[in-house]
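Hi R.,

Here's the chain you asked about this morning:
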Amino acid sequence: MERRFFLLISLFLFAVMANVRAAQPVNIIFIIGDDISWDDIGAYGNGKVKTPNLNKLALEGIKFTNMFLTASSCSPSRTSILTGRYPHNTGAAELHSPLPSHLKFFPEMLRQKGYFTALAGKWHEGPVTKRAYDTLLVSQKLNGEGGEEQWINLLKTRPKDKPFFFWLSPYDAHRPWSATTNGPQHDPARDVDVPPTLVDMSETRQDLVAYYNEIARLDHYVGLLEKELAAQGLSENTLIIFTADNGRPFPGSKTRLTDAGIKTPFLVKWPAGIGAGQTCQSLISAIDIAPTLLAVAGVDAGPTFQGRSFAALFKDPSKEFRKYIFAEHNWHDYEAYERAVRTKDFLYIINKRPQLDNGGPIDANQSPSAKALKTARRTGKLTPLQEDAFKTPRPSEEFFDNFKDPSQVTNLMSDQTYASQIQTLRKVLAQWQTETGDTVPENLTPDWYDRETGKALPAINKRGEMPGAAKNADRINLKGPF
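And here is the predicted structure, written out as tokens:
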């Protein structure tokens, strides 16, 4: 009788403890690489770059193949993720513009829920975002480490009585490149996959090798992070995300609204909540990340988040989610105003400054790869895609068939076969601009640097009117077409 009673008590206690464990809040680690293109990760098909730990992350969780950023520009992309809002709705649509204090930041809401929140690495979303974190471990890359060296200590010293959220933002792979890196190294002759936007010259290969080495360093630290999670018994109930803020810092990628700029890697692992070895092809916007993580943590996102939770895809990755994603290109070293809407099938872009080229920001257009492009251009050996970085004037409208033309080379605006699709996306983009309060200021922030030489211009540090400012777009919560 006593043995039977003891067995019943033991089973009861086991069930209670199981329920307690099941009810434990999920830990969340959000890793955002700096200037890394989606197709420069092994899991997305690059057979040359050495990313074994990220490849393993993809195999053990879900690989998203249609995640898109709202800007191919560092801080506008990050502030958009942080607030779940489009760049012109954040009040910080341009590079290095601080977020206003009245907006909500999803790590702040996690902190209010009882999470220990920390940022380690790059922090340039504005001083008011400090309130979102219990700990800020801010680093600045100076041809050395990318900031990842703080990750393990952060895991070890965190409060053990709270769930945690970490925003890990290494400088890898932002220029300037480091002279040496941890992790696998690459050989310029064997280990480089030259993208079609660049010319295959020795300068380009050396440039890409340094870029790959920095990606490999980040990958190396992802492996160390996973080992420490396992050592602390945290692997099962920790949700890890790996993504990036914009395309590679080379001409034809960074600041572009084609897939080379706004399509991003997005890997999610959470053994307690996600099955391994899955792929999700659903169309998703970066503004959907914040409401998703809040939903996973049991927090109501509220009205200020323009994105929507895609947490249901963790259980069923085959579900459709969005019909449209939207993106924008505002000032990043150079005057600009472009807007895009993309479906799975098509991409439509408008440009209100068609007289200006788009060879990328200064770190891209003054790179060794850019100089190699210019050398090849003088001999007339560039393909149309390579020549595009220098094109002026640019089209005021562009339309691409994403399946027939995955590199998005051929502008089909004059092709009557697509007249109906063009008209539809033209209307959808206009509706999005109207509903979200987007504007086209006459006095946009001008170029701060010479587009050819990179030298500072007299207008440096002068700001114009921010897109959306005239309509107080940072107070508008409408989501636009979905």
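One quick note: The chain has two domains: 24-322, 327-475.

Cheers,
M.
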